[in-house]
Task: structure prediction
Amino acid sequence: IGAALGDGPLTGRHAIVTSGPTHEPIDPVRYIANRSSGAQGAAIAAALRDLGARVTFVTGPAAVPPPEGVAVTRVETAREMAEAVAAAHPADVAVFAAAVADWRVENAAAEKMKKGTGGLPVLAFAENPDILADVAKMSEGRPALVVGFAAETEDVVAHARAKLDRKGCDWIVANDVSPETGIMGGAENAVHLVTATGVEDWPRMAKGEVARRLASRIAAELGTG
Ligand code: CTP
Ligand code: CA
Result:
């Protein structure tokens, strides 16, 4: 009821949430994608909204719909996502739940590629901007709390720690996306919250529950929870 009346612990706060996969074109009809459903990002946006935050939700082409009651910006590529995030500042907190393509096809074709004309296609890749790192390293107007995700298939916490340091963010929500966990694209998540001061291992739970727990931790960190 409190959230419906707009007086939750995050009332007056602005949150940016990225979510979903990105699509990187190969030609006008083909693209490179990944298995992110966007479910965890959507749940986080909804949980922050429920605590009263104004949420800017920047989403790639996700399988799950965006939550109600948030400002949605739909993008396709990593570079479009970076631009949309840059346009959304200032914010108190930014949560980067998107599975951003690390590389784009530098030699994407302007017309549909055809078989049998000059052999097999050869794709050349360029690295995409690191949206999380760029926000975490903003010299002016940086959100007070910058939260990244780390999808790993091995040495989950060690890789997450390295990512926290390399990217300069405040927290990393690390998860094991090995195929045998069934996490990627599933309804549940098992995460480790890695901060400068330590690691919390959260039990496997529904993505909505992970989101609510994260949102209340964010409210506490911003001094409003
Ligand atoms: N991220 C981002 N922009 C990118 C790549 C990643 O904002 N171009 C964000 C993701 O949304 C996530 C975090 O960075 O919050 C970590 O993403 P991840 O893919 O695990 O890390 P990378 O630095 O890309 O390293 P790698 O994929 O090689 O493990
Ligand atoms: Ca990556």
Q: What stands out?
A: The radius of gyration is 18 Å. The chain has one domain: 14-221. Residues 18, 78, 96, 98, 100, 102, 128-132, 148-151, 163 surround cytidine-5'-triphosphate (ligand 1) (CB under 6 Å).
